[in-house]
């Protein structure tokens, strides 16, 4: 298992949206429609994750390691795992689609819910 330091570093690498960018994104129809619903609440797992990421970013804007809680790090671990797994799949899409086509994919919308905007890495 990765150390907390590794998880924090990777989280800060993968999450390339600011708290305000992510919060604004989460209020769009594209954000609420992307992803899997874990229960009857209507909110997708990724959308809920995005809200948690916004909270983490807002509570610790300086990214001071000591200020992260155990719950923060547990969620960061999920974000790192999700982003790593989905970005591996995304690489193939980048080779065959334009930036506009990528912006419209379910994969891009889902990654943005998890705090990573793949269009920023083009």
UniProtKB/TrEMBL annotation:
Biased amino acid composition, Basic and acidic residues: 93-107
InterPro entries per record: DUF3140
Region Disordered, residue ranges: 93-122
PANTHER family per record: DNA-BINDING PROTEIN (PTHR40630:SF1), POSSIBLE DNA-BINDING PROTEIN (PTHR40630)
Protein name: DNA-binding protein
Species this chain originates from: Dacryopinax primogenitus (strain DJM 731) (Brown rot fungus)
């Amino acid at each position: 298992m990765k150390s907390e330091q590794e998880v924090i570093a990777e989280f800060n690498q993968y999450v390339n949206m600011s708290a305000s960018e992510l919060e604004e994104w989460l209020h769009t129809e594209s954000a609420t429609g992307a992803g899997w619903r874990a229960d009857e609440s209507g909110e997708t797992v990724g959308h809920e994750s995005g809200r948690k990421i916004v909270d983490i970013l807002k509570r610790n804007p300086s990214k001071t390691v000591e200020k992260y809680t155990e719950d923060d790090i547990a969620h960061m671990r999920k974000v790192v795992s999700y982003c790593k797994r989905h970005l591996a799949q995304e690489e193939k899409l980048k080779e065959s689609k334009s930036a506009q086509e990528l912006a419209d994919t379910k994969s891009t919308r889902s990654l943005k819910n998890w705090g990573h905007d793949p269009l920023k890495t083009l």
